[in-house]
Amino acid sequence: MKKILIYCSLMMLASLSSFAQNEKSSGGHGNNPWYSNTDTAKLPVSNAEWKKVLSADLYAVAREKDTERPFTGKYWKSSTKGTYYCAVCGNLLFRSDAKFASSCGWPSFYEPSRKEAVRYQNDNSFLTHRTEVLCGRCDSHLGHIFDDGPPPTHQRFCMNSVSLDFEPDGNLLMTP
Asked: Hey, which bits of the chain come out as E strands?
């Protein structure tokens, strides 16, 4: 009986975890005067200013180029249709139609929503050469791009969930 209860509890936790991956972003942008899903103007905001309005985990990844642990982010296995925005500034980044299951532990996309959504920078950290992907509006670190994705681009935009906001189709994100 005890084994059945443990098994049922684990199954319930797994289903709740899966549900959380399909949820709308919690927002929390009320203190961020630069957050907008419609403004595409470049943001010349200092890290000191970003630190005042971003959560500690988002600041660490987006502004200090940290990386969340694989298989821990909110969106790595989400299959809900919708739109992904920069969690720092609200810039439109990816559509779920370009998302695919890469099994790398992070949300992966084969193309951004538009060419200007992201920009690229060489990353030679950790004794390896990679290409970093930054938000085209606020220059926040989103993740890296690799050439092992599916057609039609054969690219894998490997993104940190914490750097993304998600809005399921049929809803609109609140912008200040």
From this structure: 82-86, 92-95, 99-100, 108-109, 118-123, 130-135, 141-146, 156-159, 164-168
52: Cα within 13 Å, side-chain hemisphere: 8
92 burial via Cβ count (<10 Å: 0-12, 13-18, 19+): buried
CATH level 3 topology of 2-168: 2.170.150
Q: Taking the complete model, does pTM exceed 0.90, yes or no? A: no
Domain boundaries, the chain: 2-168
Radius of gyration of the chain (CA): 17
The residues that are catalytic are 158
Q: What is the pLDDT along the chain (176 residues), one digit of tens a residue?
A: 443 333 333 333 333 343 344 444 556 687 999 999 999 999 999 999 999 999 999 999 999 999 999 999 999 888 999 999 999 999 999 999 999 988 899 999 999 999 999 999 999 887 889 999 999 999 999 999 999 999 999 999 999 999 999 999 986 554 44
d(CA 21, CA 27): 15
